Amino acid sequence: MASVVITYAVLLILPAGLALAAISDLTRMTIPNAIPAVVLLSFFALAPFVGLGWPDIGMSLVAGLAVFAVCFSLFAANVMGGGDAKLLTAAACWFGFNQSLLMFLVATAFLGGVLTIAILVIRAHSNTVLAMGVALPKSLTTANKIPYGIGIAVAGFMTYEHAPIVALAMRAAG
């Protein structure tokens, strides 16, 4: 059985990392490398202690590698930012290679699309919005890229409880 510290670390690290990434992407249009690194390393450090079996940990690595391969291709095609690719890869390990990963990725794609449309609408009307005195970050009004970390984070929050490591930690927490 996992200790209370390990249980709560599992329950807090992914959401905290996702939130920090979203805020950073919104305000600076970048996701610092430290965020996906902490999310990824924390998964592999905590998973054995929360009761996730070695086969499941291995499949989580497979999930991360599969997501990385797709994201790297999108990055190379200049469709996705490097920070987004690293964040998705790290988060994929938390979800594992199972239905929860599919739920997370579908939610990410859907929310990313909604986010993109919303930002394009804001940008099309940015003069009006700014003239109304609404202070918006440049990532929403004039940047050439989309802060996709926001969509990744919201999708992660929505599907978080389905990640196997999180489900184990929630059971341990009672």
TrEMBL record:
Major location (coarse): membrane
Compartments in which it is found: Cell membrane
Domain Prepilin type IV endopeptidase peptidase: 12-117
EC number annotated for this UniProt entry: 3.4.23.43
Superkingdom classification of source: Bacteria
Key words of the record: Cell membrane, Hydrolase, Membrane, Transmembrane, Transmembrane helix
Organism: Neorhizobium huautlense
Membrane topology recorded in Swiss-Prot or TrEMBL: Multi-pass membrane protein
GO terms, molecular function: aspartic-type endopeptidase activity
Record bears the keyword Membrane: yes
InterPro entries in alphabetical order: Preflagellin_Peptidase, Prepilin_IV_endopep_pep
Keyword Lipid biosynthesis: no
Protein name (record): Prepilin peptidase CpaA
Transmembrane segments: 31-54, 61-81, 101-122
